[in-house]
Amino acid sequence: MLETVADIVGIVGGLSLLAGVIFAVVQIRQLYEQRRDSAAIELMRAFQAPRFVEAFYKLGKVPAGLPARDLRAMGKEYEEAALTMVNIYETVGLLVFRRTVSFEAVRQVCGGILASSWTQLETWVGDVRVEEESKRFGEWFQWLVERVREQEAAAPSEPAQERYRTWRPRD
What we know:
7 helices, 79% helix
């Protein structure tokens, strides 16, 4: 009888331990999902921030492939706008690389403007790299653009209005 009770206690203890491990795994997954959701929200805020919008608008007036000297000749605010764009995209690229923000979220939120921003700034970034004698300037921006372009070439994405045409709310 005592052995049976000991066996039952051992089984209950083992099941309790297993339940605790499963609970911990579920909690860790939920925490990870919350972190990624928070990072995605912050990403969207960055692209809606007045500083980014102003920089994007200002650089929209600049011809693609403009050398650094010509961009500087347009005024200090244009190079500041370029630096703003590069700094934001550098951060986003690093966050994607570290898997803090999902690549697909970045691709959906800013894939188009990312590519057009790189087209606008690629020559300027190259000139700054030469001036600064650093290949690392704009490195994560370039890395992110290349990954987005590779993904688009391998599996072009449809616009949301077409891809999710049949989506309905859960209400």
